[in-house]
Amino acid sequence: MSLATYQQQLKQRLSPLVQWYRSREPREQRVLQLLGAVFVVVLIYWLLWAPSVNARNQSMQRYVANMQTLEWINANEGAVRAASGGKASALPRNWVGEVSRSANAFGLTLKNFTPDGNTSVRIQMEEQAAGQSILWLQSLQEKGVQITNLEMTPGEKSGTATVRATLQQ
After folding, report:
1. What share of the chain in percent tops pLDDT 70?
2. What strands lie across the sheet with 160-168, from one edge to the other?
3. Residue 161 three-state SS
4. Helices assigned H by DSSP within 45-151
5. Cα–Cα distance for residue pair 81/88, rounded to 1 Å
6. How far apart are CA 103 and CA 92, in angstroms?
7. Cα dist. 3→9, 10, 72, 117 in Å?
8. CB-count burial class (<10 Å; 0-12, 13-18, 19+) for 72
9. Helix (H) and strand (E) counts for the chain?
10. Which of 88, 102, 151, 169 could in theory staple to 164 by disulfide, Cβ–Cβ 3.0 to 4.6 A?
11. Cβ of 161: how many Cβ atoms within 10 Å?
12. Angle at 88 between CA 85 and CA 118, to 5 degrees
């Protein structure tokens, strides 16, 4: 079908409405025009303006949360470096227990902790502070623990993460 055909069909369908409008008095026509203009403004607000303002506000909230996380990381960088003292200390004989104790020291809760012999352990943490989790894993590496598998996904709350990792001596 061509454009002319569509235009003709549209005119045929709108013809009764146009005739009804023209049969109204000039005063009623002005009221209908005003109502049409209000309808168009409301439609533009609902379809364009409100969704864009909502998306902007959500983006601003994510930006602020990310900036706060970055500020925290930058503020604590020196303390972590000073606490490590440059050189890694030797792992204790019971290094698997040390992994659990060090997580508690960093304020983290291990949801799942599965030792695999005496040389590796699988850990899982959910909804833990992402910055603290990274610092904890870094401190383990500085002590000689190797991270052989790491999966870190964002948590539901801003600044949190779910971590699954396999650690080896």
Report:
1. 90
2. 112-116, 120-129, 160-168, 146-154
3. strand
4. 50-84, 95-105, 130-142
5. 11
6. 15
7. 10, 11, 61, 75
8. middle
9. 5, 4
10. 151
11. 19
12. 150
Tokens linked to 168: 């080896």
Q: Compute how many other C-beta atoms are within 10 angstroms of the C-beta atom of residue 130.
A: 19
pLDDT at residue 74, rounded to an integer: 82
Residues of the chain below pLDDT 50: 86-89
Yes or no: say if 162 and 152 are a contact pair by the CB < 8 Å rule.
yes
Q: What is the pLDDT of residue 9?
A: 94
pLDDT of the residue at 85: 56
* Predicted local confidence at residue 159, as pLDDT: 87
Q: Which helix (H) or strand (E) holds 122?
A: strand 120-129
151 Cβ contact partners less than 8 Å away, ≥ 6 residues apart: 163, 164, 165
Record the pTM.
0.46
Give the helix, strand, coil percentages of the chain, each rounded to 5: 60, 20, 20
**Which residues, 6+ apart, have CB-to-CB distance to 107 below 8 Å?**
129, 132
